[in-house]
Amino acid sequence: FRAAAEATTLPKVRVIDLATAYWHSQVIYGLTKNGLFEALRAEPLTCSAAAAVVALNAPFVCRLMAAGASLGLLEGVESGKWSLTPVSELLLEGVEGSQKDFVEMIVAPYNTQSWAALGGGEALREGRSAFEVAHGERFWDYVTARPALEKQFDGAMTSFTTAAAASILSSYAFPPNGTICDVGGSEGGTLRMLLQHYPDAAGIVFDRPTVAARAAATFGAAHLGARARSLGGDFLGEALPSELSRCNVFVLKHILHDWDDASSVKILQNIAAVGKRGAKVAVVEHVLGVSGAGMERAKRMMDLNMLASCPAGAKERTVAEYEALFRLAGITGKAKLHPMRDILSLVEVALPEASVPRRFRAQSRSDASADASGREGTPPCRFCAVFKKLPRRFRARGDPPCRFQEASGREEILLAVHGNRDAAQPP
Protein backbone atom coordinates (compact mmCIF):
# COMPACT_ATOMS: atom_id res chain seq x y z
CA PHE A 1 0.00 0.00 0.00
CA ARG A 2 2.83 2.39 0.80
CA ALA A 3 4.44 1.76 -2.59
CA ALA A 4 1.13 2.39 -4.33
CA ALA A 5 0.57 5.61 -2.39
CA GLU A 6 4.06 6.87 -3.21
CA ALA A 7 3.65 6.00 -6.89
CA THR A 8 0.54 8.16 -7.10
CA THR A 9 1.97 11.09 -5.11
CA LEU A 10 2.95 14.19 -7.06
CA PRO A 11 6.74 14.60 -7.18
CA LYS A 12 6.56 18.01 -5.50
CA VAL A 13 4.50 16.58 -2.63
CA ARG A 14 6.88 13.66 -2.34
CA VAL A 15 9.83 16.04 -1.99
CA ILE A 16 8.05 17.98 0.73
CA ASP A 17 7.11 14.79 2.58
CA LEU A 18 10.71 13.59 2.56
CA ALA A 19 12.20 16.94 3.56
CA THR A 20 9.82 17.35 6.51
CA ALA A 21 9.86 13.75 7.71
CA TYR A 22 11.91 14.79 10.74
CA TRP A 23 8.90 16.80 11.95
CA HIS A 24 7.15 13.50 12.62
CA SER A 25 10.15 12.28 14.61
CA GLN A 26 10.07 15.39 16.75
CA VAL A 27 6.37 14.95 17.49
CA ILE A 28 6.78 11.40 18.78
CA TYR A 29 9.95 12.40 20.62
CA GLY A 30 8.33 15.40 22.29
CA LEU A 31 5.31 13.45 23.47
CA THR A 32 7.46 10.59 24.75
CA LYS A 33 10.33 12.54 26.28
CA ASN A 34 8.05 14.94 28.13
CA GLY A 35 5.88 12.24 29.70
CA LEU A 36 2.62 13.09 27.95
CA PHE A 37 1.85 9.47 27.09
CA GLU A 38 2.54 8.51 30.70
CA ALA A 39 0.11 11.24 31.81
CA LEU A 40 -2.63 9.43 29.88
CA ARG A 41 -1.74 5.95 31.14
CA ALA A 42 -4.46 5.80 33.81
CA GLU A 43 -7.27 7.62 32.01
CA PRO A 44 -8.04 10.01 29.13
CA LEU A 45 -7.35 13.68 29.85
CA THR A 46 -7.79 16.99 28.13
CA CYS A 47 -4.62 18.49 26.76
CA SER A 48 -4.70 21.18 29.46
CA ALA A 49 -5.02 18.59 32.20
CA ALA A 50 -2.17 16.56 30.69
CA ALA A 51 -0.02 19.69 30.52
CA ALA A 52 -0.71 20.32 34.20
CA VAL A 53 0.40 16.78 35.10
CA VAL A 54 3.82 17.30 33.49
CA ALA A 55 4.06 21.02 34.33
CA LEU A 56 4.31 22.26 30.74
CA ASN A 57 2.76 25.18 28.84
CA ALA A 58 -0.84 24.17 28.08
CA PRO A 59 -1.34 25.94 24.71
CA PHE A 60 1.90 24.47 23.34
CA VAL A 61 1.08 21.02 24.68
CA CYS A 62 -2.39 21.13 23.12
CA ARG A 63 -0.89 21.82 19.70
CA LEU A 64 1.69 19.07 20.12
CA MET A 65 -1.00 16.57 21.13
CA ALA A 66 -3.17 17.55 18.17
CA ALA A 67 -0.21 16.87 15.87
CA GLY A 68 0.27 13.53 17.61
CA ALA A 69 -3.35 12.65 16.96
CA SER A 70 -2.86 13.35 13.24
CA LEU A 71 -0.09 10.73 13.27
CA GLY A 72 -2.19 8.12 15.03
CA LEU A 73 -0.46 8.52 18.38
CA LEU A 74 -3.52 9.82 20.22
CA GLU A 75 -7.26 9.41 19.83
CA GLY A 76 -9.89 11.98 20.72
CA VAL A 77 -12.68 10.80 23.01
CA GLU A 78 -15.57 12.48 24.81
CA SER A 79 -15.39 15.99 26.26
CA GLY A 80 -12.23 17.00 24.43
CA LYS A 81 -10.12 14.34 26.09
CA TRP A 82 -7.27 12.40 24.53
CA SER A 83 -6.56 8.68 24.99
CA LEU A 84 -3.72 6.41 24.01
CA THR A 85 -3.72 4.29 20.86
CA PRO A 86 -2.08 0.86 20.35
CA VAL A 87 0.92 2.72 18.92
CA SER A 88 1.43 5.09 21.86
CA GLU A 89 0.87 2.30 24.37
CA LEU A 90 4.22 0.97 23.19
CA LEU A 91 5.79 4.23 24.36
CA LEU A 92 4.93 3.70 28.02
CA GLU A 93 7.58 2.75 30.56
CA GLY A 94 7.78 -0.91 31.47
CA VAL A 95 5.18 -2.41 29.15
CA GLU A 96 6.05 -5.55 27.20
CA GLY A 97 7.82 -4.55 23.99
CA SER A 98 8.12 -0.90 25.05
CA GLN A 99 9.82 1.31 22.45
CA LYS A 100 10.21 4.27 24.81
CA ASP A 101 13.97 4.02 25.24
CA PHE A 102 14.44 3.50 21.51
CA VAL A 103 12.48 6.63 20.59
CA GLU A 104 14.23 8.75 23.19
CA MET A 105 17.64 7.44 22.07
CA ILE A 106 17.27 7.56 18.29
CA VAL A 107 15.79 11.09 18.19
CA ALA A 108 17.96 12.49 21.01
CA PRO A 109 19.93 15.61 20.07
CA TYR A 110 23.29 13.81 20.16
CA ASN A 111 22.04 11.46 17.42
CA THR A 112 20.28 14.06 15.28
CA GLN A 113 23.43 16.19 15.43
CA SER A 114 25.36 13.25 14.01
CA TRP A 115 22.91 12.92 11.13
CA ALA A 116 23.29 16.65 10.50
CA ALA A 117 27.08 16.18 10.34
CA LEU A 118 26.53 13.43 7.77
CA GLY A 119 24.10 15.38 5.62
CA GLY A 120 26.09 18.59 5.98
CA GLY A 121 28.94 17.06 4.04
CA GLU A 122 31.92 17.18 6.42
CA ALA A 123 31.79 13.47 7.20
CA LEU A 124 31.29 12.69 3.51
CA ARG A 125 34.30 14.77 2.49
CA GLU A 126 36.65 13.41 5.13
CA GLY A 127 35.45 9.81 5.29
CA ARG A 128 35.08 10.12 9.06
CA SER A 129 32.41 8.94 11.44
CA ALA A 130 29.67 11.56 11.49
CA PHE A 131 29.35 11.07 15.25
CA GLU A 132 33.03 11.87 15.73
CA VAL A 133 32.67 14.93 13.50
CA ALA A 134 29.77 16.18 15.62
CA HIS A 135 31.06 15.26 19.07
CA GLY A 136 34.80 14.75 18.83
CA GLU A 137 34.73 11.21 20.24
CA ARG A 138 33.46 7.75 19.40
CA PHE A 139 29.85 6.85 20.14
CA TRP A 140 30.82 4.10 22.61
CA ASP A 141 33.15 6.39 24.55
CA TYR A 142 30.47 9.09 24.58
CA VAL A 143 27.70 6.92 26.04
CA THR A 144 29.96 5.00 28.42
CA ALA A 145 31.02 8.30 30.00
CA ARG A 146 27.33 9.15 30.50
CA PRO A 147 25.69 6.33 32.49
CA ALA A 148 22.15 7.59 31.89
CA LEU A 149 22.69 7.49 28.11
CA GLU A 150 24.37 4.10 28.30
CA LYS A 151 21.39 2.71 30.21
CA GLN A 152 19.02 4.30 27.71
CA PHE A 153 20.93 2.78 24.79
CA ASP A 154 20.82 -0.66 26.39
CA GLY A 155 17.11 -0.18 27.00
CA ALA A 156 16.67 0.72 23.34
CA MET A 157 18.41 -2.49 22.30
CA THR A 158 16.29 -4.47 24.76
CA SER A 159 13.15 -2.93 23.27
CA PHE A 160 13.66 -5.07 20.16
CA THR A 161 14.27 -8.21 22.14
CA THR A 162 10.79 -9.73 22.26
CA ALA A 163 10.15 -9.57 18.52
CA ALA A 164 13.72 -10.46 17.56
CA ALA A 165 14.00 -13.37 19.99
CA ALA A 166 10.66 -14.76 18.83
CA SER A 167 11.83 -14.59 15.21
CA ILE A 168 15.11 -16.26 16.08
CA LEU A 169 13.38 -19.07 17.96
CA SER A 170 10.98 -19.73 15.09
CA SER A 171 13.78 -19.84 12.52
CA TYR A 172 16.81 -21.36 14.20
CA ALA A 173 17.32 -24.42 16.40
CA PHE A 174 19.72 -24.13 19.32
CA PRO A 175 21.18 -27.24 21.03
CA PRO A 176 18.57 -27.99 23.71
CA ASN A 177 21.17 -29.07 26.26
CA GLY A 178 23.97 -26.76 25.17
CA THR A 179 25.39 -23.42 26.21
CA ILE A 180 24.26 -20.30 24.35
CA CYS A 181 26.59 -17.30 24.58
CA ASP A 182 25.29 -13.86 23.64
CA VAL A 183 28.34 -11.74 22.83
CA GLY A 184 27.44 -8.09 23.25
CA GLY A 185 24.16 -9.34 24.70
CA SER A 186 23.35 -6.12 26.54
CA GLU A 187 21.07 -6.54 29.56
CA GLY A 188 20.37 -10.20 28.82
CA GLY A 189 16.88 -9.92 27.39
CA THR A 190 17.51 -12.12 24.36
CA LEU A 191 19.32 -14.81 26.33
CA ARG A 192 16.56 -14.77 28.95
CA MET A 193 13.96 -15.61 26.30
CA LEU A 194 16.15 -18.27 24.70
CA LEU A 195 16.71 -20.01 28.03
CA GLN A 196 13.03 -19.83 28.90
CA HIS A 197 12.36 -21.64 25.63
CA TYR A 198 15.12 -24.21 26.23
CA PRO A 199 14.74 -25.26 29.89
CA ASP A 200 17.80 -27.55 29.82
CA ALA A 201 20.18 -25.08 28.18
CA ALA A 202 22.64 -22.76 29.90
CA GLY A 203 23.85 -19.35 28.81
CA ILE A 204 26.36 -16.55 29.19
CA VAL A 205 26.10 -12.86 28.30
CA PHE A 206 29.38 -11.09 27.57
CA ASP A 207 29.30 -7.29 27.45
CA ARG A 208 30.87 -4.19 28.96
CA PRO A 209 31.27 -4.58 32.73
CA THR A 210 28.60 -2.02 33.64
CA VAL A 211 26.15 -3.67 31.26
CA ALA A 212 27.01 -7.19 32.43
CA ALA A 213 25.98 -6.19 35.94
CA ARG A 214 22.51 -5.31 34.68
CA ALA A 215 22.32 -8.61 32.78
CA ALA A 216 22.95 -10.45 36.05
CA ALA A 217 19.97 -8.61 37.52
CA THR A 218 17.84 -9.67 34.52
CA PHE A 219 18.68 -13.32 35.10
CA GLY A 220 18.03 -13.05 38.81
CA ALA A 221 14.61 -11.51 38.28
CA ALA A 222 13.74 -14.29 35.81
CA HIS A 223 14.92 -17.00 38.26
CA LEU A 224 17.59 -18.11 35.78
CA GLY A 225 20.57 -17.60 38.06
CA ALA A 226 21.38 -21.32 38.09
CA ARG A 227 21.61 -21.49 34.28
CA ALA A 228 22.68 -18.01 33.20
CA ARG A 229 25.57 -15.78 34.07
CA SER A 230 27.14 -12.58 32.79
CA LEU A 231 30.77 -11.71 32.15
CA GLY A 232 32.22 -8.25 31.69
CA GLY A 233 35.00 -7.37 29.29
CA ASP A 234 35.93 -6.09 25.84
CA PHE A 235 35.28 -8.22 22.76
CA LEU A 236 37.93 -6.21 20.92
CA GLY A 237 40.53 -6.97 23.57
CA GLU A 238 43.37 -9.43 23.41
CA ALA A 239 41.31 -12.46 24.40
CA LEU A 240 37.84 -13.45 25.55
CA PRO A 241 37.31 -15.11 28.94
CA SER A 242 38.08 -18.82 29.00
CA GLU A 243 34.57 -19.46 30.34
CA LEU A 244 33.30 -18.90 26.79
CA SER A 245 35.08 -22.06 25.65
CA ARG A 246 32.00 -24.02 26.73
CA CYS A 247 29.72 -22.21 24.24
CA ASN A 248 27.91 -24.28 21.63
CA VAL A 249 26.52 -21.19 19.88
CA PHE A 250 27.88 -17.65 19.90
CA VAL A 251 25.09 -15.17 19.16
CA LEU A 252 26.10 -11.78 17.68
CA LYS A 253 22.90 -9.76 17.44
CA HIS A 254 23.23 -6.15 16.26
CA ILE A 255 26.99 -6.27 16.89
CA LEU A 256 29.03 -6.54 13.70
CA HIS A 257 27.09 -3.78 11.93
CA ASP A 258 28.46 -1.39 14.57
CA TRP A 259 32.04 -1.97 13.46
CA ASP A 260 34.31 -1.70 10.44
CA ASP A 261 35.69 -4.79 8.73
CA ALA A 262 38.95 -4.90 10.70
CA SER A 263 37.18 -4.64 14.07
CA SER A 264 34.56 -7.19 13.00
CA VAL A 265 37.31 -9.61 12.02
CA LYS A 266 38.96 -9.08 15.41
CA ILE A 267 35.71 -9.93 17.21
CA LEU A 268 35.34 -13.09 15.13
CA GLN A 269 38.99 -14.04 15.64
CA ASN A 270 38.56 -13.71 19.40
CA ILE A 271 35.53 -15.98 19.24
CA ALA A 272 37.37 -18.50 17.07
CA ALA A 273 40.32 -18.48 19.47
CA VAL A 274 38.23 -19.27 22.55
CA GLY A 275 35.47 -21.34 20.95
CA LYS A 276 35.48 -25.10 20.86
CA ARG A 277 35.63 -26.87 17.53
CA GLY A 278 32.31 -27.18 15.78
CA ALA A 279 30.69 -24.40 17.79
CA LYS A 280 28.37 -22.20 15.75
CA VAL A 281 28.50 -18.44 15.26
CA ALA A 282 25.03 -16.97 14.65
CA VAL A 283 25.11 -13.41 13.32
CA VAL A 284 21.73 -11.66 13.53
CA GLU A 285 21.64 -8.45 11.50
CA HIS A 286 19.82 -6.43 8.84
CA VAL A 287 21.31 -8.60 6.09
CA LEU A 288 21.13 -6.79 2.76
CA GLY A 289 19.62 -8.23 -0.38
CA VAL A 290 17.43 -10.96 1.10
CA SER A 291 14.06 -9.23 1.65
CA GLY A 292 11.34 -7.35 -0.21
CA ALA A 293 11.65 -3.75 -1.36
CA GLY A 294 10.06 -2.21 1.74
CA MET A 295 12.37 -3.98 4.15
CA GLU A 296 15.41 -3.35 1.97
CA ARG A 297 14.69 0.37 2.06
CA ALA A 298 14.53 0.27 5.86
CA LYS A 299 17.84 -1.61 5.92
CA ARG A 300 19.42 1.07 3.74
CA MET A 301 18.31 3.69 6.22
CA MET A 302 19.81 1.63 9.04
CA ASP A 303 23.00 1.39 7.03
CA LEU A 304 23.15 5.19 6.95
CA ASN A 305 22.46 5.26 10.68
CA MET A 306 25.61 3.18 11.12
CA LEU A 307 27.46 5.74 9.02
CA ALA A 308 26.09 8.54 11.19
CA SER A 309 26.49 6.95 14.61
CA CYS A 310 29.29 4.40 14.60
CA PRO A 311 33.00 4.32 13.74
CA ALA A 312 33.84 4.85 10.09
CA GLY A 313 33.34 1.60 8.19
CA ALA A 314 30.44 0.33 10.29
CA LYS A 315 27.71 -0.90 7.96
CA GLU A 316 25.04 -3.41 7.09
CA ARG A 317 26.34 -6.26 4.93
CA THR A 318 25.29 -8.94 2.48
CA VAL A 319 25.66 -12.67 3.11
CA ALA A 320 28.74 -12.68 0.86
CA GLU A 321 30.29 -9.85 2.86
CA TYR A 322 29.72 -11.70 6.13
CA GLU A 323 31.27 -14.81 4.63
CA ALA A 324 34.29 -12.74 3.62
CA LEU A 325 34.63 -11.53 7.22
CA PHE A 326 34.46 -15.12 8.47
CA ARG A 327 37.24 -16.18 6.11
CA LEU A 328 39.44 -13.24 7.09
CA ALA A 329 39.00 -14.38 10.69
CA GLY A 330 40.10 -17.89 9.76
CA ILE A 331 36.58 -19.35 9.89
CA THR A 332 36.40 -21.06 6.54
CA GLY A 333 33.09 -22.90 6.79
CA LYS A 334 30.21 -22.16 4.45
CA ALA A 335 27.95 -19.36 5.65
CA LYS A 336 24.30 -20.38 5.84
CA LEU A 337 21.44 -17.89 5.69
CA HIS A 338 18.43 -18.49 7.93
CA PRO A 339 15.65 -16.12 6.74
CA MET A 340 13.31 -14.93 9.47
CA ARG A 341 9.83 -13.44 9.54
CA ASP A 342 11.46 -10.17 10.43
CA ILE A 343 13.60 -7.42 8.99
CA LEU A 344 16.48 -9.32 10.58
CA SER A 345 18.13 -12.45 9.20
CA LEU A 346 20.52 -14.94 10.75
CA VAL A 347 23.80 -15.93 9.12
CA GLU A 348 25.39 -19.05 10.62
CA VAL A 349 28.89 -20.41 10.30
CA ALA A 350 30.63 -23.22 12.17
CA LEU A 351 34.07 -23.10 13.70
CA PRO A 352 36.32 -25.82 12.21
CA GLU A 353 35.39 -29.28 13.42
CA ALA A 354 38.96 -30.16 14.34
CA SER A 355 42.30 -28.49 14.76
CA VAL A 356 45.70 -29.98 15.36
CA PRO A 357 46.14 -30.67 19.11
CA ARG A 358 48.67 -28.39 20.74
CA ARG A 359 51.03 -31.28 21.50
CA PHE A 360 51.30 -31.99 17.76
CA ARG A 361 51.91 -28.39 16.70
CA ALA A 362 55.36 -27.29 15.65
CA GLN A 363 57.01 -24.38 17.35
CA SER A 364 56.40 -21.00 15.84
CA ARG A 365 59.02 -19.80 13.41
CA SER A 366 60.23 -17.26 15.95
CA ASP A 367 60.91 -20.09 18.40
CA ALA A 368 62.46 -22.47 15.89
CA SER A 369 65.55 -24.13 17.20
CA ALA A 370 68.61 -24.78 15.12
CA ASP A 371 68.67 -28.04 13.20
CA ALA A 372 71.40 -30.64 13.48
CA SER A 373 73.77 -28.57 11.37
CA GLY A 374 73.29 -25.55 13.61
CA ARG A 375 71.26 -23.63 11.05
CA GLU A 376 67.98 -21.97 11.84
CA GLY A 377 65.15 -23.83 10.12
CA THR A 378 61.64 -25.20 10.37
CA PRO A 379 61.36 -27.30 13.53
CA PRO A 380 60.69 -31.02 13.18
CA CYS A 381 57.05 -31.99 12.85
CA ARG A 382 55.84 -33.82 15.94
CA PHE A 383 52.68 -34.94 14.14
CA CYS A 384 54.81 -36.72 11.53
CA ALA A 385 56.79 -38.42 14.29
CA VAL A 386 53.60 -39.84 15.76
CA PHE A 387 52.29 -40.73 12.29
CA LYS A 388 55.35 -42.84 11.54
CA LYS A 389 54.64 -44.97 14.61
CA LEU A 390 51.26 -46.06 13.26
CA PRO A 391 50.98 -49.55 11.74
CA ARG A 392 51.67 -49.35 8.03
CA ARG A 393 48.15 -50.45 7.09
CA PHE A 394 46.83 -47.16 8.55
CA ARG A 395 49.31 -45.03 6.64
CA ALA A 396 49.28 -43.67 3.12
CA ARG A 397 52.18 -44.56 0.81
CA GLY A 398 55.33 -42.90 1.94
CA ASP A 399 55.91 -40.46 4.72
CA PRO A 400 53.37 -37.62 4.53
CA PRO A 401 55.06 -34.30 3.80
CA CYS A 402 53.61 -31.39 5.74
CA ARG A 403 53.46 -27.66 5.55
CA PHE A 404 52.39 -25.02 8.03
CA GLN A 405 49.65 -22.49 7.48
CA GLU A 406 48.89 -19.74 9.91
CA ALA A 407 45.19 -19.17 10.47
CA SER A 408 43.95 -16.80 13.17
CA GLY A 409 47.19 -17.14 15.11
CA ARG A 410 47.18 -20.96 15.01
CA GLU A 411 49.44 -23.26 12.95
CA GLU A 412 47.63 -26.11 11.24
CA ILE A 413 49.31 -29.04 9.55
CA LEU A 414 48.15 -29.88 6.05
CA LEU A 415 48.86 -33.48 5.16
CA ALA A 416 49.22 -34.76 1.63
CA VAL A 417 48.39 -38.44 1.34
CA HIS A 418 49.82 -40.76 -1.31
CA GLY A 419 53.08 -38.82 -1.27
CA ASN A 420 51.71 -35.90 -3.31
CA ARG A 421 53.74 -32.93 -2.13
CA ASP A 422 51.79 -30.44 -4.23
CA ALA A 423 48.61 -31.21 -2.32
CA ALA A 424 50.34 -30.18 0.86
CA GLN A 425 50.96 -26.64 -0.29
CA PRO A 426 48.89 -24.04 1.65
CA PRO A 427 46.03 -22.59 -0.42
Overview of the molecule:
The protein has 427 residues and is α/β, with parallel strands linked by helices. Helices cover 43% and strands 14% of the residues. The protein has helices at residues 2-7, 11-19, 21-33, 36-39, 47-54, 58-70, 86-89, 100-106, 109-119, 122-126, 130-135, 139-144, 147-158, 161-171, 189-197, 209-221, 261-274, 293-309, 319-328, 382-388; strands at residues 45-46, 74-76, 81-84, 179-183, 202-207, 228-232, 249-253, 280-285, 336-339, 345-350, 402-407, 410-415. The strands form 3 sheets. Strands 6-5-4-7-8-10-9 form a 7-stranded mixed sheet, with helices on both faces. The protein has a 3-stranded antiparallel sheet with strand order 1-3-2. Helix 8 (100-106) packs across helix 13 (147-158) and helix 14 (161-171) packs parallel to helix 15 (189-197).
Indicate the overall shape.
Answer: globular
What are the segments in which pLDDT stays under 50 over at least 5 consecutive residues?
Answer: 355-390, 393-427
The largest β sheet comes out as: 7 strands, mixed
Radius of gyration: 27 Å
> If strands are numbered along the chain, what order do they take across the biggest sheet?
6-5-4-7-8-10-9
- Fraction of residues in β-strands: 5-15%
Return the structural class.
alpha/beta
- Proportion in helices: 40-55%
Measured between the Cα atoms of the first and last residue, the distance is 51 Å
Overall average pLDDT: 84
Give a concise summary:
By secondary structure, the protein is of the alpha/beta class.
Chain-wise SSE layout:
Layout: H1 2-7, H2 11-19, H3 21-33, H4 36-39, E1 45-46, H5 47-54, H6 58-70, E2 74-76, E3 81-84, H7 86-89, H8 100-106, H9 109-119, H10 122-126, H11 130-135, H12 139-144, H13 147-158, H14 161-171, E4 179-183, H15 189-197, E5 202-207, H16 209-221, E6 228-232, E7 249-253, H17 261-274, E8 280-285, H18 293-309, H19 319-328, E9 336-339, E10 345-350, H20 382-388, E11 402-407, E12 410-415
Parallel strand pairs: 4-5, 4-7, 5-6, 7-8
Antiparallel strand pairs: 1-3, 2-3, 8-10, 9-10, 11-12
Helix pairs in contact: 3-6, 5-6, 8-13, 9-18, 14-15
